[in-house]
Fold:
Amino acid sequence: QLADTPLAITGLHKSYPGKKAAVADLSMRVERGQIVGLLGPNGAGKTTALRMMLGLLRPSKGEIRLFGHRLGAGSPALSRVGALVEAPGFLPHLSGLDNLRYYWAATGRPMLQSHLDEVLQIAGLDTAAKRKVRTYSQGMKQRLAIAQAMLGLPELLVLDEPTNGLDPPQIHRMREMLRRYASTGRSVLVSSHLLSEVEQTCTHVVVMHSGTVAAAGTVEEITAIDGEVTFVVDQPRA
Ligand code: ATP
Structure:
């Protein structure tokens, strides 16, 4: 069962020179089919934690296991993880579909048309796939970016604040997209600073505060904690 767990983290630490630890003693797991929300105010250490999980940043201490394998440089388990941590640049004069093809060609991995079709459908971009990206709304571009991270149908999808800057209808579409993805038995880890958002999208929540876990559990368990996690209810950044 342990080998099957997409993500298991124990005692993770990261300090930047001259500052207090950005992540301190972080332990958490993501099981199959779960949508886990990593919730915390700006500066809680979410981005730092996600970057370590993706092998983009080396922890000062602690262990990260992906599908039972200890994460190290060039870990093959990383090919089972898809991620969006920074907005990718798209070619505006190409269609959404061609942007995805162009991106995938650069990975050198074979493209499966069935994957492409499934991902576009999950992203709700199937009818817009042949339109040029410059005609896309912000929400559509954001879903295309996540579609790109989903292209290999990774077993674990990691997203850093994917709804930042989106309006409520677009946030709703994003939520549907993540639910459709997880309903296929795959897992999602998504960071956010808004409890309302995590509450409606996720099955489980890990609340981060000052680099560590302040609370963790199912959405029902977390929302039942009266008052103690209200500090995470933050205003969206402009
Ligand atoms: P945000 O939503 O603002 O990105 P976050 O929860 O993702 O917040 P982090 O970005 O991980 O938090 O930042 C955690 C702490 O680490 C903050 O105090 C931040 O200033 C610091 N920090 C982050 N990146 C660096 C860096 N490259 N060098 C030095 N300090 C950093």
